[in-house]
Design brief:
The chain is α/β, with parallel strands linked by helices. About 30% of the residues lie in helices and about 20% in strands.
């Protein structure tokens, strides 16, 4: 069985929502809620918050969490996870990058990724979910993904893919299963440092999707289908949605 660490990258200076990890949801900080959910996973041997901010670090320590301070200049959560992995005092076979703005991440989703990482010849794993509404299908802020028969991602796009030539878009969903990307990743520990050294590719620049860099450089991304709907908190408005969700 692989030894897996869950790393939660959390930075303070979010452009759209500064201080987001410390935002309160029903009296508890978002970072604590993410940490608690990750700890429920049966697949993780350790859970660590990776942050560049002492306020976040102190908050994590206050609820008994494990935290590592990282540099402030990381361009992505993947890079922050790689530094945190290099600073751990024990060996791990794989890493699961748990988004610090997903306070309702399900332990079962983490376990799904762990299962994918246990398979042969899997570099990276991520989650997808069937799209149920036309609004989701055409929303450019929701990345879509086309999947091969073995479950590997063929391509990610902000546009609805595949294009269905003989139907208007409002009739696509009854004809075919379209998938949206859920932004949680698992990596083999040996792969993670290599990902941080890759040059940005043409497709990533066009679509503004980090995962296309990995595909362009020949890494495979195994997908698993989840039925859980997550609530990512990117803005103060999203925080209100999260408050309403937990109150229900």
């Amino acid at each position: 069985m692989k030894k897996i660490v869950g790393i939660i990258p959390a930075r303070y200076d979010s452009t759209r929502f500064p201080g987001k990890p410390l935002a309160l949801i029903a009296g508890k900080t978002m970072i604590e809620r993410v940490y608690e959910q990750a700890k429920k996973s049966t697949s993780l041997q350790r859970v660590v918050v990776a942050t560049d901010d002492n306020r976040i670090a102190e908050t994590v320590r206050s609820f008994g969490g494990d935290v590592i301070l990282t540099r402030t200049d990381h361009p992505s959560g993947t890079d922050r996870c790689a530094e945190a992995l290099s600073k751990l005092d024990e060996h791990f076979d794989a890493v699961i990058n748990i988004q610090g703005d997903e306070p309702f991440i399900q332990p079962g989703q983490i376990d799904l990724l762990a299962g994918a990482l246990a398979e042969e010849n899997v570099d990276i794993a991520t989650l997808v979910k069937i799209i149920r509404s036309h609004d989701e299908l055409i929303n450019e802020n929701i990345p879509k993904v086309v999947i091969a028969s073995n479950g590997d991602a063929l391509y990610f796009s902000r546009q609805p893919i595949p294009f269905m030539k003989n139907f208007k878009t409002e009739y696509w969903l009854p004809q075919h299963n379209y998938y949206k990307h859920i932004g949680i990743y698992g990596y083999q520990a040996s792969i993670l440092p290599r990902l941080t050294q890759l040059q940005q590719g043409v497709l990533e620049k066009i679509e503004s999707l980090e995962q296309l860099r990995w595909l362009e450089h020949g890494f495979n991304i195994r997908t698993r289908i989840t039925e859980f709907e997550t609530i990512a908190v990117d803005t103060p408005e999203d925080l209100q949605r999260a408050q309403q969700y937990i109150s229900q």
